[in-house]
Specification:
Strand order of the largest sheet: 1-2-3
Number of helices: 2
Oligomer: single chain
Number of domains: 1
Shape: extended
Strand content: 25-35%
Largest sheet: 3 strands, antiparallel
Structural class: alpha+beta
């Protein structure tokens, strides 16, 4: 079974915490892992930036009641964005390959 796991050690505390961003891909018997450490001063910056990017969470009431995302909800939004980007990039690359093959298979119009 193939899967990609994503882990980000960011605590819900309002103070800055050192974090590690890890992306792990497992396919068959092989596993690849890439990690980066996010310095203490930057963890809060990352969370705050993505809380702004992804915005508040609002319910379906009229008028809607909105609240700020928790750190865990922000992390989930970041992870979802990464996975969506991976899927979109693969699809785009495969579509470009099929388009190039199809273009090469079309013969030019001949006029005399």
């Amino acid at each position: 079974m193939k899967h990609i796991a994503f882990a980000l050690a960011l605590l819900a505390a309002p103070v800055a915490q050192a974090g590690t961003l890890t992306l792990t891909a497992t396919a068959g018997a092989g596993t690849m892992t890439q990690s980066v450490t996010i310095p203490d001063a930057d963890v809060t910056r990352v969370l705050n930036a993505y809380k702004t990017i992804y915005g508040q969470i609002c319910d379906n009431a009229t008028p809607p009641v909105c609240r700020a995302r928790t750190n865990a909800e922000t992390f989930l939004a970041i992870a979802t964005g990464i996975f969506t980007g991976i899927k979109n990039n693969v699809l785009s690359q495969e579509q470009a390959g099929v388009a190039a093959t199809a273009t090469g298979a079309v013969s030019p119009v001949t006029m005399q």
